[in-house]
Amino acid sequence: MRVGLPEESVAAPLPATTPTVTPIESSEFNWSWEMLFWLLPLGLLLWGVVALIGGWRRRRQDPWLALLTWGRKAGRPMDVDETTAEYGRGLADYVVAHGRAEPGTGRHVAGEIRALSGDVTAAQYGPGPLRDDALARIDARWSTLRGYLRRLRLRKSGRTT
User: Is the distance from CB of 144 to CB of 113 less than 8 angstroms?
Assistant: First the structure.
């Protein structure tokens, strides 16, 4: 005798029944204005989150690397043998020569670029207290310069330096 299995005489076969299936109604998409009521705020929320993350990333970006990236895109990349001060002067001259904005904007941007490169040099090579002041000035200059760089349009041409 087997343990755990029912005996043949106890288990009777179940009667065969055919399952009844009810047809499912049409699953077509039905538009409802209530959906717009929920989708619109969700879309605005998603847009706001993306804008906040983008702004946070721009603020967290290193100012000097951002300026190097902008200079490369503008047509004036940094040479391998250039120092930060030399590149700052060269990029400032390039902005003045190739700017298509209001006359004072190019000169103002060039002055900020020169000052930023000088502050970067001071932060790299200056003594401790001078470095802290230079880092604060770098952030302040970059926040000013970033707004100008968005609006500044340059005529791209071959590099002559």
Answer: no
